[in-house]
Amino acid sequence: MSTAVSDRPPASAPQDSEGSGPPTSRARQLLSGVVRALLTQRIVLLLVLLVAVVITMTTLSARNYLSAPYDLSYMSATLISAVPLVMLGLAELLVITSGRGGIDLSVGAIVSLVSMVFGFAYGEWGWPLWAAIVLAAAVGGLCGAVNGFLIAFIGYPALITTLATYYAYSSLAVVINNQQPISTQPIQDFFSAAGTVPVAGLQVPLGTITFLLPTAVVIWLLLNRTTYGRRLYAIGTNDVAAQWSGIDVRRTRFLAYTAAGIISGLVAVVTVAQFASARPDAGVAGNGMALPAITIAVLGGVAITGGIGRVAGVVLATLLIVWLNAGILLAVPGNAGSQFQLFALGIVLIFAALLNGLTQRKYGGTG
Amino acid sequence: MSSQTLSPAGGPPAAEQKHTAKERGRVLPFPITGQEIVLILVIAVLWAALAVSTPAFLTSSSVVPLLVAMAPVALIGIGMTVIIITGGIDVSVASIVMVCAVIVAKTMVSSGIPLPVAVLLSVVIGGLLGLINGVLIAYGRVHAIIITFGTANLFKFLGLQIFGGTTVDNIPGTLDFFGRGAAGRTLGIPHSFLIMLVIAALAWYYLRHTAGGRHLYAIGNDADAARLAGVKVQRRVLLAYVLTGALTGLAACFVIARGTSTLAPNVGAGMELAAIAAVVIGGTSIMGGRGSVLGTILGALLVQTVTSGVTQLGWRSQLSSLFIGIFILIAVGADLLRQRTRRTA
Questions:
Q1: Could you report the predicted ipTM of this complex, rounded to two decimals?
Q2: How many pairs of residues across A and B have Cβ atoms under 8 Å apart?
Q3: Which chain A residue is nearest to residue B334, measuring alpha carbons?
Q4: Which residues of A touch B291 (CB under 8 A)?
Q5: Residue A86 in contact with residue A294, Cβ under 8 Å?
Q6: For residue A335, what are the CA distances in angstroms to A177, B95, B150, B322?
Q7: Is residue A321 situated within a structural domain?
């Protein structure tokens, strides 16, 4: 924000390589080109880090430093924890990209509340599955619309609004069923939705195909192939300019928060399947779900100032975190493993944020 | 705030007074804002309603725990006010409470240090952790919320490592001076509350009447302009985070004292949100540049009143967070409305 001001030099013009001098300077040019690609193309950096993590872990595994083999089947099994992360990371991508301090702290609370609603519909009232999922998305969308209405139409700061609704939604989630989880027979049977299916000889978690892939594809199409996507990037980059060029800034921003709510509602369905129970603290227990989601988005190259962010960055950042965490669990046995995951998440977030700042000053932003 | 809106007074001596008030009013805003007056009224109404509906509310056995419970949140809120005035935020304070509390508790159990050493230890550790935040934010030039989300994880990791998977038991009563028992009161008023008030008064004076305090407001309004006007922006920002860390360290001592002789790893959980809620309800603008310590104290008192009131009325305790959420929205909404009318006026 205001403290992050810098004496940023204007983005350096692309170096013209017509005057290719002696071989040494050409080698230096190549090196600076690689550094530049690593810093400005977040996807390149993430791919390099991802390969580094996987190679390190498989090497450790081959030398028996780990408590279980770190191989392809383990890596595909751990994708189950990538499902909520990618989806909520994409939700944060939408709201952060919408600009003007956009952020959503309430996604975890929405997950909790919608988990309970879904639990009632599918577990208690005996609704068919598709109707219960539609209801979950609708209630999630409604929660997101409340955020969006306050932020876009009334002008509340996003951080405070979503902090307040975080309180409100998580309180409602606990009160709605007297603190009790719902785990009736249909909900317990719904655990099968968290099973695996064979894809190309590997057991891949079902959730990646039924929820993760469709969400990622839809958001990618929305951002890159529709006018709405162009408008979202426009209002995030400069909402005054967007207003003057005839974009309905309020409506565009409102829809971003609503979409984030819908995605959170779908994540609730995934979580109910994973736990085989609709829990009132599903999205806020422990560290909550909002913090990892924001971390993923920032690591994936989403600029906290808005207007910049890509789906591929979020997906790659999630894979990096999930496979790193999976390795940590094998390297550090027991309770300490989850503590080291906190450590890794914190270090990676600060590293990514410092890198974003450096890139911004040196090259004028990530691509 | 213009002099015309002041009530025209009668005699000539009053007119002279009006003149000086006008002169002073140009430099500093009125010491109490409309939002703070409204807060005082709301708290008074709530206390009256609670006193009528539950006769036990206005007895010392109910008010003392309330004041003891609000003291740490208000203390952290004072630091958070300073940070938010500069345009930043600190979501790592809950983890700082955890680290300070576990180190102090473990040291008290193992070597029985006296009270002043325990407090000093906690304040120094808190200040060091705040220094890490401050250096990363002021010199790394990254948005405060991202950095403090990251350090919140790191500090939590540190705290959990020191806890070592179990609780800290049999903590000696060294810190009872801050507790809710008889040792923690003078003339019936809890010490932790009194200490919080003294620090709040110091912070109020610093923010309002010293150049350093006014610089913080300048940074929050426009950091670039402040730098061009000669304010050492990075040093001031760094100082704000160190100060908050140190206050959080002191708050950790209050937290140990207000509990039992056992410390569990979930100590401090949720305090960052409670502190931010108190600051925002108190009328400090999250965009920076505006706010006061008095509002934060009132905000913390309101939050604690709601929490205690919900329990005493026999309602489900989680309902209190619903009310806190609604109070935040009302407070920020009132602030937005005031800004809008000021701009159009």
A1: 0.78
A2: 162
A3: A156
A4: none
A5: no
A6: 31, 18, 21, 33
A7: yes
Identify the DSSP state of B20. H
Q: How far is B182 from chain A (nearest CA, A)?
A: 35
**pLDDT higher than threshold 80 for residue A172:** yes
Q: Do B333 and A156 touch (CB under 8 A)?
A: yes
Q: Give the chain A residue whose CA is nearest to the CA of B154.
A: A343
For A241-245, what is the mean pLDDT? 92
Whether residue A176 lies inside any domain: the answer is: yes
Higher pLDDT, B208 or A196: B208
Task: Give how far A264 is from chain B: nearest CA, Å.
Answer: 20
- Does residue B140 belong to the interface with chain A, where contact is any CB pair within 8 Å? yes
Spatial distance between the Cα atoms of A117 and A113, rounded to a whole number of angstroms: 6
Check CB contact under 8 Å for A357 and B237. no
What is the tens place of the pLDDT at every residue in A56-104?
888 888 887 777 788 888 888 888 888 999 999 999 999 999 988 899 9
The number of domains in chain A is 1
Taking the Cβ of residue A7 and every Cβ of chain B, the question of whether any pair is shorter than 8 Å is answered with no
Domain of A327 in residue numbering reads as 46-60+71-363
Q: What is the CATH number of domain B34-344?
A: 1.10.3470
A-interface mutation test, from B266, B326, B332, B341, most A Cβ less than 10 A away: B332
Is residue A23 a part of any domain in this protein?
no
Instruction: Please indicate whether, in this complex, the C-beta atoms of B325 and A171 are within 8 angstroms of each other.
Output: yes
**Domain for residue A81, yes or no?**
yes
- The C-alpha of A173 sits at a distance from chain B's nearest C-alpha, in angstroms, of 9
Binding-face residues of A in 262-291 toward B, CB within 8 A: 287, 291
What CATH number did the domain enclosing A340 receive?
Answer: 1.10.3470
Distance from CA of B253 to the nearest CA of A (A): 24
pLDDT for B13: 46
**B281 lies within 8 A of chain A by CB:** no
Asked if A155 reaches chain B (Cβ–Cβ under 8 Å), the answer is yes
CA separation, residue B28 to residues A241, B32, B216, B322 (Å): 36, 11, 14, 36
Q: Would you kindly state where each structural domain of chain B is located, as residue ranges?
A: 34-344
Nearest to A115 by CA among A308, A317, A323, A282: A282
Mean pLDDT by 10 residues, chain B (345 residues): 42 47 58 80 86 78 83 93 92 91 89 86 94 90 83 89 82 76 75 90 90 87 85 89 94 86 80 88 84 91 88 79 87 81 62
Task: Please give the C-alpha separations between residue B241 and each of A145, A350, B329, in angstroms, as whole numbers.
Answer: 35, 17, 26
DSSP classification of residue B58: T
> Quick check: A337 contacting B, CB < 8 Å?
no
B146 and chain A in contact, CB less than 8 A: yes
